[in-house]
Amino acid sequence: MINFAVIGSNWITEKFINGTLVNNDLNLTAVYSRTLKTAQNFAGKFNVQQCFDDLQALSQCDDIDAVYIASPNALHFEHALLMLEKGKHVICEKPLASNIQEVDALYQAATANNVILFEAYKTAYLPNFAQIKNNLSKIGKLRKAHINYCQYSSRYQKYLNGENPNTFNPYFSNGSIMDIGYYCVAFTIALFGKPQHIQADAVLLNSGVDGCGAVLLNYGDFSVTIDHSKISRSDLLSEIQGEQGNLLIKQVSECTEVTLITDIVTDLTQDQHENSMSYEASFFAQQIKQGKMDLQSVERSKITSAVITEIRRLTGVKFPADNQ
């Protein structure tokens, strides 16, 4: 059994914990929050007794083997580095850090301390993502792909009201490409690897982050167009086009439906667990049990961060972490 703690007490932390209940490898042992009362209230939902409001104390606790990090983006690097250096395995919410320099430093720390570091990008471990990969050859030579994820943020009105929520605040390393757009970029990298050339444009908000944007990734003989937004909504499917057919994907982060169109239309959709985070939790535990990081996951994580760092450079989105 792998005893783990959580940093953060929001809805995504609760979903991850529930995802770990699908198998018996991970056992919630402790909860950290900035205030002890918040940690205790959250821990009570899962009958957990050990609570922390001190990160150093958490990192030094011998009862904890691993840590799930769901703090604000700008704190991912600091929190993950501390836990890795104290010998804890880490699964950290996407994006793993604010830029590629921080991501590289985290993987170096994981290697130096002989522990697992895993970016919590669930899509690549879903049964329907496997269906996409396994059926790419059926559409012939790849030519184009359109990856779409545009979702009007529930916090945008707060931003318009002048409340400056984390979602649209550069001091928290946030914005559309770091949130919604991350899924599009990581999906593309997981399928096709590192692009040869990157072009990008974005609509910047007065806060300095991007509200929405478009990215063109060139792979030589085919290209991928990404549309991402947190200030508008779209119900368009994502599509991968080949010379002999195409693949349609509904909800690129979850891959809820996958359709192959050639001379006939084939529904490739597989049943997936209702808590899609259960797949990333299982893969994290598997790496710990095997005692080594999955190199393909590490490579995808690094390339995704490098591509997003370049997209931000091209669009003029800057974070305080970029100056450190």
TrEMBL record:
It comes from the Bacteria. Residues 2-120 form the Gfo/Idh/MocA-like oxidoreductase N-terminal domain. One of its GO terms (molecular function) is nucleotide binding. Keywords: Signal. Residues 138-247 form the GFO/IDH/MocA-like oxidoreductase domain. InterPro entries: Gfo/Idh/MocA-like_OxRdtase_N, GFO_IDH_MocA-like_dom, NAD(P)-bd_dom_sf. PANTHER family: PTHR43054, SCYLLO-INOSITOL 2-DEHYDROGENASE (NADP(+)) IOLU. This is Oxidoreductase domain protein.
